[in-house]
Structure prediction request, 290 residues.
Amino acid sequence: MDIKDLNINYKDKRTTTLENKGDVYYIQYTALKESGFVKHGISTRFGGVSEGIFKSLNLNFTRGDDIDKVIENYKRICDALEVDVNKLVCTYQTHTNNVIRVGETPLERFYVGCKTPSGVDGLVTNVPGVVLTTSFADCVPLLFADPVKKCIGLSHAGWRGTVGKIAKITIDKMVNEYGSKASDIICCIGPSICKDCYEVSEDVHETFKESLSNRIVYEAFDDRGIIDNKHKFLLDLWQANRMICLESGLRDYNIYLPDICTNCNPDLLFSHRASKGRRGNFNAFLSISY
Prediction:
């Protein structure tokens, strides 16, 4: 399928643009482009060399795709974003709320294709040229940028990361490591599964009630009642992360919600739910310009 044939199902408020360099297509946030000090992008499925269920720009090494093709895909998207593939810092995500600082020294740097520390779902840096990247297929990318202190953060928030307040932990890391003020930080909540598509069970609802404020739980859940003898809810990860950012000191006008749902657009972005687990990953990339 050609990307020009796609009928992308956008949400009401547009916050992103679809860009390309040749055949490589990626999503960018207007707010981050206008910040003037970062390079960023969220890869789509278009522009790579992978085949079958991984077609075509798969960026996951662990689901059975050919390793050489994945590496080539990374080279292509990094070339399109004009960042250095040799300065990528990758995460090996396990749905934690662990966030680490990365920089130039060997102990702080991990390279594409290499084994990375398990249990790291968020990264921060203030080093220009270092490229943060995290992987997704329905979970929520969280892109943070402080234009005052010139530092950035990138985190992966599934429902476990959300309930573990990885957004707050990333913000706090930027404050503690680089002297950021939360009120200066921009947060772009990336393409991910929307509320209408994300049905969860009662145990997830109870976990949120135990860990987050009543206001967040009220805003983030819709009660669907008993379905097939089980209590079901719709969960809005976008709104939950937005409100965690607000409670952490971010300004509402500095928080940007997605306009694209992964499950609604499985031909544009990999979606675990839409594909029933037969898929690759797309990535978010964030770097401070030299």
Remarks:
- Confidence is low (pLDDT under 50) at residues 107-111.
- The radius of gyration is 18 Å.
